[in-house]
Amino acid sequence: MAYLDKNNIIRGALGNVVFRQLDDKNVIQAKPEKLKQTKATKESATDFGTASTTAKKLTISLKSIYFNHHDNKMHTRLRSCILNIFKKNMTTSRGQKSLWMSDIETLNGFDFNLTSLFSDYLKLNIGVSMSHDHKIKIQVVSLDPKKYIKWPESIFKAELCFLMSVFGKDDLRIKNQEVFKKEISFFNSSVTALNYSSTPITSDALVIVSACLLFYKEDSLVSRIPINHKSMHPAQIIKVIKIELAT
């Protein structure tokens, strides 16, 4: 409603007209029309909300691999990546999409920190597969630390860490997580090939294998001090696998 204030200036609204005072001038503005949401826009909003919720669940569950050493836009990048996955899913109706019903290959190689890409620090491929008995296999070939690892200045100890996470296909709740680690010294002439095997997957699940490189400074008192930080923490989603077991 509109009314006269003590200075005889019209305030408020009358119909689709709004009366305002801007500095020493009386201004009349038309009310903007309300946007009417269509079924399509509501469904798109639902997919956006699902992408946001999915990204949040993943970042919480995978925090032990990236700690808080991610770039400032990591959460936004992950949500956008998941939303793009949903958009490419042309077989599922809008508003009904999920990672389980989509092509999840785009998540492979997602870096948690763009200021220190995992592939810049570990310069070889990591093999991830599922065996006939439903175990996740992680394989790294024999490597020369000086050649295949980018070492920070005056740092000679590192740890290659893998996190294998098993998520429920519908609710993305964590069903199991396993950690595999390998200590590496700059002074080793070579590191033997790594072969890790998880416990068997017993039901349909979404499996994410992620990895990070932790660097340590040697200390005579406490043995080693971690040096990774916000601008230097190579961590990545290596492989996402959708496991459907025959019933």
Question: How does this model look, in words?
Answer:
With 247 residues, this protein is an alpha+beta fold. The protein folds into two domains: 1-34, no CATH class; 39-243, no CATH class. Helices cover 20% and strands 34% of the residues. It has helices at 39-61, 63-66, 74-88, 118-121, 145-148, and strands spanning 2-4, 10-14, 17-22, 25-30, 127-130, 136-140, 157-168, 174-185, 194-197, 205-219, 223-226, 235-243. Helix 1 packs across helix 3 (74-88). It is elongated, with a radius of gyration of 26 Å.
Summary keywords:
about 250 residues; alpha+beta; 2 domains; 5-stranded antiparallel β-sheet; 5 helices; about 35% strand; elongated
Describe the structure concisely for a colleague:
The chain has helices at residues 39-61, 63-66, 74-88, 118-121, 145-148, and strands spanning 2-4, 10-14, 17-22, 25-30, 127-130, 136-140, 157-168, 174-185, 194-197, 205-219, 223-226, 235-243.
Helix/strand-derived category reads alpha+beta
Q: Count of helical segments?
A: 5
Largest sheet descriptor: 5 strands, antiparallel
Q: How far is it from the N-terminal to the C-terminal residue, by CA?
A: 66 Å
**Can you give the mean pLDDT?**
90
Q: What is the beta-strand fraction?
A: 25-35%
- Low-pLDDT sequence parts: none
Overall tally of domains: 2
SSE order and pairing:
Elements: E1 2-4, E2 10-14, E3 17-22, E4 25-30, H1 39-61, H2 63-66, H3 74-88, H4 118-121, E5 127-130, E6 136-140, H5 145-148, E7 157-168, E8 174-185, E9 194-197, E10 205-219, E11 223-226, E12 235-243
Antiparallel strand pairs: 1-2, 2-3, 3-4, 5-6, 6-9, 7-8, 7-10, 10-11, 10-12
